[in-house]
Specification:
binds (3S,4R)-3-hydroxy-2-oxopiperidin-4-yl beta-D-xylopyranoside, 364 residues, 13 helices, alpha/beta, TIM Barrel
Length: 364
């Protein structure tokens, strides 16, 4: 008996010693795609360390900024393709599942898009024509090369009302199915997604479930509901969040975690409304050098709980994407408070994986 136990113990030691370090994409390969938002410097290779981490660990990318309207279509008769082309090539060179972000969004919208030459809102037909041109041109250019599109971003308020964007003012609810129809016309094989923040809110959840069910009943293609998932240490409530995940899956769509980051600094607002910015204050930036161990432990525990939510719902989640490669790249260093030293991503400023990832990577 003693000998058997000794042998068993020896073989267990061997198993744990022989477990090879893995990459994130190996660790989650049977569960979901593991993605990352990349910026123009990673795609051009100027940021070689960021690019190397993206290539090593992730099998999907999304464009953090270069495909937003103000970047890619700054004037009515001018598109700017250089950065977007480099983004797509980066994904192709590295066999990644490539996501375009985003076709219709009120933020980072080129100022001309919904206005006439006097600055007044255009009429409904003019906006339909502009949307069709915008979506057909961009989706058409990358037909067969970009596998999925965030078609409409942030159309609904936290309470479930439609956001009163210029798109909504001019076209009403119609702008959403229209945008999906145009995208599907331009690339019938591309997956099409609707995406928003604060998806844990019941009002938003219910509205999206209804909206997606309506679109499906009308035969409009929609493949996934994207939960952005910009989080903090105290929001959202994770059971509300998991309830939304399940409610979205009940529509028959896949669920995607599209923009995951979790701030470790004092929170000043919830949600992720890009327009809600707060001026720098020293008290809001308490750890400019290093995250204290107790806060780091709190952050890692919460990330661990979140990964467990994703793993137990892996049958309905097709992708989990981090909104940036390393802490140094994150938009959360400037949002919601400008100029803070944040710690929201999977990799720290030296591209070391955070502790919650060690068990997946077998590297400790
Ligand atoms: C952010 C980018 O990360 C920043 O670089 C940019 O200045 C503002 O937008 N929701 C979205 C993303 O859908 O496109 C936003 O990205 C973050 C919130």
């Amino acid at each position: 008996m003693k000998k058997t136990l000794t042998l068993l113990a020896a073989s267990l030691v061997m198993v744990s010693c022989s477990a090879e370090p893995r990459t994130l994409k190996d660790a989650f390969k049977d569960k979901f795609l593991i993605g990352v938002a990349v910026n123009q410097w990673q795609c051009s290779g100027e940021d070689s360390l960021g690019a190397a981490t993206a290539k090593k660990h992730f099998n999907s990318i999304v464009a953090e900024n270069v495909m937003k309207c103000e970047e890619i279509h700054p004037e009515e008769n001018r598109y700017f393709w250089d950065d977007a082309d480099r983004f797509v090539k980066f994904g192709e060179d590295n066999n990644m599942f490539i996501i375009g972000h985003c076709l219709v969004w009120h933020s980072q919208l080129a100022p001309w898009f919904c206005k006439d030459s006097l600055g007044n809102l255009v009429d409904a037909q003019t906006l339909r024509d502009r949307l069709r041109d915008h979506i057909h041109t961009i989706v058409g250019r990358y037909k067969g090369r970009i596998q999925g599109w965030d078609v409409v971003n942030e159309a609904i308020e936290d309470n479930g009302d439609y956001r009163n964007s210029d798109f909504y003012k001019i076209l009403g609810e119609e702008f959403i199915p229209l945008a999906f129809q145009y995208a599907h016309e331009a690339d019938p094989d591309a997956e099409l997604y609707i995406n928003d923040y604060s998806m844990n809110n019941a009002g938003k959840r219910d509205r999206y479930v209804k909206l997606v069910n309506d679109m499906k009943s009308k035969g409009i293609r929609i493949d996934a509901i994207g939960m952005q998932s910009h989080m903090g240490l105290d929001y959202p409530n994770l059971s509300d969040y998991e309830n939304s995940l399940k409610a979205f899956a009940s529509t028959g769509c896949k669920v995607m975690i599209t923009e995951l980051d979790m701030g470790a600094l004092p929170s000043v607002n919830r949600g992720a409304n890009v327009a809600d910015k707060v001026a720098y204050q020293k008290e809001l930036n308490p750890y400019p050098e290093k995250l204290p161990d107790d806060v780091s432990a709190q952050w890692n525990n919460r990330m661990d709980s979140l990964m467990n939510i994703y793993l137990r719902n892996a049958d309905v989640i097709s992708r989990v994407t981090a909104w940036g490669v390393s802490d140094g790249d994150s938009w959360r260093n400037d949002w919601p408070v400008r100029g803070r030293h944040e710690y929201p991503l999977f990799f720290d400023r030296n591209y070391n994986p955070k502790p919650f990832l060690h068990k997946y990577l077998n590297d400790k």
